[in-house]
What we know:
Elements: H1 34-45, H2 54-62, H3 74-92, H4 99-125, H5 127-133, E1 140-144, H6 150-157, E2 163-164, H7 168-172, H8 194-201, H9 205-209, H10 223-230, H11 243-249, H12 256-272, E3 278-282, H13 290-296, E4 301-306, H14 309-324, H15 335-359, E5 367-371, H16 372-377, H17 379-390, H18 396-408, H19 428-434, H20 436-441
Parallel strand pairs: 1-3, 1-4, 2-3, 4-5
Helix pairs in contact: 2-3, 2-4, 3-11, 5-12, 10-12, 14-15
Amino acid sequence: MEVTHYYQCSPGSHAATSYEQFPQNHVNFSPLLKPVEWIDRVYGLFGRRAFKMMGAVLKEFDRAAPLDEKIGTQQELLQNRHLVALFCEGVDGNPYLSPMGRFLLKRIAIEQLKKRKKVLQYYYTNKEFIDTHGQLKAPVIVTGLPRSGTTLLQRLLSEDPNTRSPYTYELETPTPPLAAGANPLRDHRINRSGPKILSRLAPGLVEKLAESHLWSATEMEESFLYMLYHNGMPQMNSASAGSVYVEHFYNIADKRPIFRYERLFFTILDAYRPARSHWTFKSPVYAPFFPLIFEEYPDAKVVVTHRNPLVVLPSACRLLESWCIAFDQDGSFDKHRFGQFQKMAMKKFLRVPLNYRKAHPEKEEQIIDCLYDDLLSDPIAMVRRIYEKFGLEYTREFERRMKAYLADNQQGKHGRHRYSLEEYGFNEKGVYRDHQDYLVRYGFGIPEKNLKPA
Length: 454
């Protein structure tokens, strides 16, 4: 793949600008990972690159093939396999990833595909019990723009004793499922979760990410994001695979098996620890595939969050920068080129839900909008509005627990990022032009001042 397809550039081939266009990696990898660099040097002596993904990852993907019929047709699964192959090709061809980055991406992809196989095996081994006891009716699904309040809203909604929302460690290691009487905060999987492991092996990564998004083993987390990981599509590293992969990633049709896998995944969890009323899912990544929500969950209750794209775009860039830069060679991360990748994604996050809702006004009774400013000004009132809209039971205990959560998780508790449109190569008028129909519809304008100056 051509180097122009990537957001990085050769280290040392540029001079830093006033906006620090080419930042240094903030992660200090553990000495335990030193052998990774030694192995890469040995490969380099023979003109090769260590930790290539393609063969090993596709082999792991294919190991679940006999079980895949539950989630898709042969043609649909071939489309998925092709997308996984594109991701591997993009990563393998990226000359700007560090040896540590290539090693981690390969390891993460293989480990998550193994989880997918285990989930499918667990279903077929316990099919009769799961089909009898597993229910997944009318889930509440929170989606919308990244950085528009989806995490806060999910974690508030999950304080309802009548709902179930997945813990991070459940999404990472779902089998065996949590039992009904088990204490979820004493589960042995907590210490083996991704946030715990990466905090030890890559100090600085989880901590920097927490300035935008608290990723913790015992917090409720993004369901569909993990479903993509389980199926060989690490969405947080989409840009690492280059623009060709990113363009193909947003194809809606080939995500049907992922939605079916998600439904099966949560049916298994519900069979052993059922929700009293409903499940609550959250992921901004539902938005680019919005039509499939109602295709797979025709009774879904959907909350769409909104925030001014002129604020969201640099905020999303900063969050993803804090993750992706850990996989790159020092000095190769180019904020301006990275911004173009996020601009491409932003169009999908905005336009797909907007276009679907214009074409399907009959679905509006199952959808409610949540503006970021309204959520922050009175989060309890916003949750009450959502429950009234969908006819869900709102209890005093639920409200008490939400108030306790808010008191213990004030905004900025884990630090704050600073960012601006200019930092990522954008200007206000250009972004406004790109998304004018959305901005007008939801009453957004050009902010008088940058709320998060660089």
